[in-house]
Design goal:
The chain has helices at about 1-40, 70-80, 95-100, 130-135, 270-285, 300-305, 330, 350-360, 425-430, 450-460, and strands spanning about 45, 55-60, 80-90, 110-120, 125-130, 140-145, 145-155, 160-165, 185-190, 200-210, 225-230, 240, 250-255, 265-270, 295-300, 320-325, 340-345, 345-350, 365-375, 375-385, 400, 405-410, 415-420, 435-440, 445, 460-470, 475-480. The protein is of the alpha+beta class. Strand 21 and strand 22 (about 405-410) form a beta hairpin. The chain starts with a helix and ends with a strand. About 35% of the residues are buried.
Length: about 475
């Protein structure tokens, strides 16, 4: 009985083994070949001459190749105009020893962050993001295997842009395109230095225009970003977004990510905005913003309901004038809260970002025509734009220079900012870093540069400064004046 059982078991195992070998040797290769053919060959349906049902046939001809888009010319043009920027700052730490010995040198660890910039003019002017350099006590530009010290010309937090300058001439300024003519779906190329990888080029399309994403921490932000899916990562900030011709269409500024790295959503400041910001900072030291004397919000179903406007319209075109100031161009021109503004001059403004972008191209004193809808009737009105102070004057940056104190001073909304500090300056000797804003000296608030000059011209002894460093940290600096 046992022998019979062994014979049956051996026979079964032999049968299974033979079947397995047959599958491996013959069946599986046939299946693999069939799957390979159906995956990589083109399936075409022939038109039969008879009325019999069409039978699919497998063509062995290769798939017609689509000619890839060549970005090499655009990349070659753009990369020569993009620079690598290092922003260097020193974390300020002051101890009791500083107070007693009057050193005031403020130890701390040197911090270096990097970004990108675009050569805007051949004589050394470079545009970048404000957030790339805003915490810097010293700025360095790496270009063509050389390191240049850079001078900060001006910043504009409203658009997250800044202009710096290096002492060099004959630089390859980038060719400027037009962001207004840029189309959604158009190919673009991003050039920058992500993760310290110099001259990195990526490509994508324009995903959207006029994006308002709420990232600018400023009283009057201008957000009308170009959205692209070209890969942009930390270090790309301030770099170039160019079209297929290698013309600048935007300054790469932000990514939308939960990880801090690229996830498919990147944003750039339109070049038309960047061009005006650059011109204003170089000419005036400050960007000229214009206002109508009123505030607009999105015109949509929700806001139409909120402000008791008709919600039966099919298209919510325009922006809603939410409020107006007691004095200013809007009220003088007869505009009222609830008016729907649809055009500035001949340009349609269907979103808040489009309205702010179009207004940003103008200067205080410019005369514009607004088209608006009130009570389902269209009308136009002319008005003159004003600056933040409510006048039509051009605002210029006021920098106070004093040889006795050996630094440049500028009044700000918080106190007095100190920069371009010379080595023999008393401020340098007591440990005041570059781009430090002095709020108080010995617990007395300071608002004007002259107050600092007068204080150090007369004071002797121990004291301390209270203020904000370039990294926005509140700092106390003990000092000794002998």
């Amino acid at each position: 009985m046992k022998n019979a059982f062994k014979i049956i078991l051996l026979g079964a195992l032999a049968g299974f083994g033979g079947a397995f070998l047959f599958y491996i040797g013959f069946i599986k290769p046939e299946l693999a070949q069939h799957q390979s053919e159906t995956r990589f060959n083109t399936i075409s349906y022939d038109s039969p001459a008879t009325t019999s049902p069409a039978v699919p046939s497998y063509s062995t001809s290769p798939t017609t190749a689509v000619t890839p888009i060549d970005f090499s010319d655009a990349a070659a043009k753009a990369t020569q105009s993009v620079v690598y920027i290092n922003s260097i700052s020193r974390g300020a730490t002051y101890s009791t020893w500083d107070w007693f010995f009057g050193e005031g040198t403020g130890g701390g660890r040197t911090q270096v962050s990097s970004g990108s910039g675009v050569i805007f003019a051949s004589d050394g002017y470079i545009i970048t993001n404000n957030h790339v350099i805003e915490s810097a006590e010293r700025i360095e530009v790496n270009y063509n295997k050389r390191v240049y010290p850079a001078e900060l010309i001006g910043t504009n937090p409203s658009t997250d842009l800044a202009v710096i300058k290096i002492n060099e001439s004959g630089l390859p300024a980038i060719a400027l395109g037009s962001s207004k003519n840029l189309q959604v779906g158009e190919w673009v190329v991003a050039v920058g230095n992500p993760f310290s990888l110099a001259s990195t080029v990526t490509a994508g399309i324009v995903s959207a225009k006029g994006r308002r994403i709420g990232i600018l921490e400023d009283k009057f932000p201008i957000e009308s970003f170009i959205q692209t899916d070209a890969a942009i990562n930390p270090g790309n900030s301030g770099g170039a977004l160019v079209n297929k011709s290698g013309e600048l269409v935007g300054i790469n500024s932000a990514i939308l990510s939960r990880t801090g790295s690229y996830t498919g959503y990147a944003f750039a400041v339109p070049v038309d905005i960047a061009r005006k910001v650059f011109d204003d900072l170089v000419k005036y030291g400050v960007v000229q913003q214009s206002f109508i004397g009123g505030n607009v919000v999105e015109y949509n179903f929700e806001n139409a309901t909120k402000y008791d406007l008709s919600t039966s319209v099919k298209n919510f075109n325009g922006v809603l004038l939410e409020s107006i100031e007691k004095t200013g161009p809007a009220i003088e021109a007869g505009l009222k809260p609830g008016d729907i503004i649809t055009r500035i001059n001949n340009t349609e403004v269907n979103t808040q970002s489009a309205f702010e972008e179009e207004l940003s191209y103008h200067y205080p004193g410019d005369k514009i025509t607004l088209t608006y809808i009130r009570d389902n009737k269209t009308a136009t009105v002319n008005l003159t734009l004003v600056n933040l102070n409510g006048t039509t004057d051009i605002i210029k940056r006021k920098i106070f220079s004093n040889t006795a104190i050996g630094a440049q001073l500028e009044a700000t909304q918080y106190g007095v900012k100190v920069f371009k500090i010379k080595d023999n300056s008393i401020l340098k000797q007591i440990g005041v870093p570059e781009n430090f804003t002095i709020i108080a000296i010995n617990r007395v608030r300071v608002k004007d540069p002259e107050e600092i000059v007068d204080f150090f011209g007369k004071y002797k002894g121990r004291g301390y400064l209270y203020g904000i460093n370039s990294s926005r940290q509140q700092v106390e600096i003990p000092f000794m004046v002998r």
